[in-house]
Amino acid sequence: MNPVYAIVIVTAFIALGELVSIWSKARVPSLLVAMLGIFVVAKAGLVPQGVIDDSLLLQVYTITTGPLLFHMGTLLPLRQLLQQWRSVIITFAAMLVAVLAIVAVVTPLFGFATSVAGAGPLAGGIVATGLTTQGLVRAGLTGSVLVVPSMVLMLQSLPTMPLTNFLLRRHAQHLIDSGELLKHYGQKDDDATDAEEHRSHRTLVTMPESLVDNHLFMLFVVCVGGALATFVAGLTQVPSSIVALVFGVIAAALGLAPQRALEKANSFGIAMAAIIALVMAPLVKASLADVLAAIVPTLVILVIGVIGILIGGIIATKLLKLRVELGMAVSLTATYGFPADYLLTHEVARSVGRTTQEREALVDAMLAPMLVGGFASVSVGSVVIASIMVGLL
After folding, report:
1. What does the alpha-carbon distance between residue 88 and residue 94 come to, in Å, rounded to a whole number?
2. Which of 109, 12, 89, 101 lies closest to 51, judged by CA?
3. CA angle, corner 308, sides to 305 and 311, nearest 5?
4. Residue 334 gets which letter from DSSP?
5. What is the largest CA-CA distance in the chain?
6. Smallest Cα–Cα separation from 301: which of 107, 38, 171?
7. Cβ atoms within 10 Å, residue 345
8. Are 379 and 75 in contact, with CB atoms under 8 Å apart?
9. Rounded Cα–Cα distance for residues 3 and 9 (Å)
10. In this predicted model, what pLDDT tens digit does every residue of 62-107 receive, in sequence order?
11. Interhelix angle for 240-254 vs 215-236, to 10°?
């Protein structure tokens, strides 16, 4: 098929997923709609099974992986990560327990490769799933195991988003009933807040706005970051994905790259489309028998993984002496990330808060730990886990 036609078909399903997600306020995952839709259409013979290969998006993924991971490292300011260190620890502890539980339970039942296939996607998002899928292909694995990452990614947020909503509601109601909400979060000094935010954005190097706003120069910056990560990875044998993440964090902290660097280059959309295409590919090419064979392992991974996330989150929350409901909600952000964590927090604040002041205070109390937990897990933790797990194949 002509690549121009193929990329229209692939991006049409991606766009459809985004529209459904927006319409449902993120209750229906966009990736579930996109991947399930193209799978059904391909199996019905309405589009060729090689449509993703024909779109050339897999080649785009090859050259954008390094820059994209460098970009992921620039997503959160280092200062903000340090301020919300409890959320980071809770999320990482939850992910670690989940991965260990998956390896301990799934490996004896379905093999270590299946554990690897499920651990990265469950502990994070689309980028970790792309790394996992790529690693499985490089390891020469075939059949149903290649379908597992896609299925875990499609289904992981279905049980965890309603559970997060319940936990946040419990926490929000406690804040209101105890009087803690307005005491600690209800009175805001806007001038002090603005001054603090200004200080938090100060960096060692100040890049001129003319360069930050220049799309092509920003594209060069992220490509340099990806290339340096690839070079250093070759020397140190550390996975290039981890190196790129670290370089992104350092570059943003020093001011050598802006936050959300790839978005500044107006290139984030095509990079994400390439990753989604990579994750879609095994599902589109798989036989119906492979998909059916992957259902049971996927369900086991989801159940064990979510239980592991909750156990790890509870343990870390207890040790840090925080409210269990908030800690568990933060830990669950690993399964859906942004923007679902943002939308869920605002939805709970709107429904639980009785006045405008209470609603604003609830957002102030819950949004920062939820966002940091989600970004830390999806952007950093899951990539590290996926890189390590794939390296063990």
Report:
1. 10
2. 12
3. 155
4. G
5. 63
6. 107
7. 24
8. yes
9. 10
10. 888 888 888 877 876 677 667 778 888 998 899 999 999 999 999 9
11. 130
